[in-house]
Amino acid sequence: MTRNDWTKEEILAIYNKPLMELLYEAATVHRKHHDPNKVQVSTLLSIKTGGCPEDCGYCPQAARYHTDIEGNDLMSVSQVKAQALRAKSSGSSRVCMGAAWRNVKDGEEFDKVLEMVRTINKLDMEVCCTLGMVTENQAKRLAEAGLYAYNHNLDSSEEYYKEVISTRGYQDRLDTISNVRKSKVTVCSGGIIGMGESLGDRAGMLVALATLNPQPESTPINALVPVEGTPLEEQQKISIWEMLRMVATTRIVMPETQVRLSAGRTDMSREGQAMCFFAGANSIFAGDKLLTTPNPNVDDDMEMFKLLGLEPQKAFEKKSQPQSVSAEESKYKPLNEKPKWSRPGHTIVRNVEAKAKAKTKV
Ligand code: SF4
Question: Residues 9-24: pLDDT tens digits?
């Protein structure tokens, strides 16, 4: 049975169990709720890269930091379709489109994204978007276009979130998730470990996710990839043991959720990834890039699947394909709302320093 009343103490006690016990328990929960030999494969596509006004300390796409990434404007629908077809032919059942926006704004660009959603849905693939904060009406418009999932990560615990981002608050994240829940779109939400947070913060993030009712249908667990020029450029990479504990704990407290190995997989050996699959991870991001950071190539992943006897999960195995309504027949129209997303604006010293450093480099 899925519990929605987990406490931080309970989650910390699970995370800190002797490793063999933790893995055994997680693998047992995993087998009860999922086929342990199936792994869902998603391709992440950056449809609009860089130039983001936010100050997320881990992100090379924030305009205020000086990083090497090449930005691009919103891709065309035909470009996205070509990439989706490529992803499908290499074994992906889902395309996740990411745009470096603070929040969705009604207008031409959002209409184009809705058309991308319709196009990929027609390819019989699951479509996910990660576009920043959304209102209830925008979530319903995405649902109507045929969106399967919306990603909005909580990133960390509420307390540590304030140490990483100052341009929006934790409540904005929760409000967006709640707006998505008012539509038929499933929720994808997870976070990043290795940003300097404590074990208590990792448990705090899992409390926030596991006490959502219903829990997210998918949860990406990212390992920070420190990128030069970002405030977190000097963070030590986390070890496989920490990833393993986080995956296993997530599996135990969120038994039905698809737990996704996300950023940081290039630093994990096949043996390490195999242990994560054993501990309950049952999804990966495929493709040589994760938005802007490196990722193992698809052929390597498929070779690893063969070695481990894993099979890619088919599209719509967990939930049926959403119907897609054309723009002309849509019953939800743009409301041009002006939602009051917060902007706490507190000082995060390392973010301020990275911004100042970037100015001297331009
Ligand atoms: S994580 Fe998203 S919102 Fe934050 S700076 Fe990067 S692109 Fe912008």
Answer: 999 999 999 999 999 9
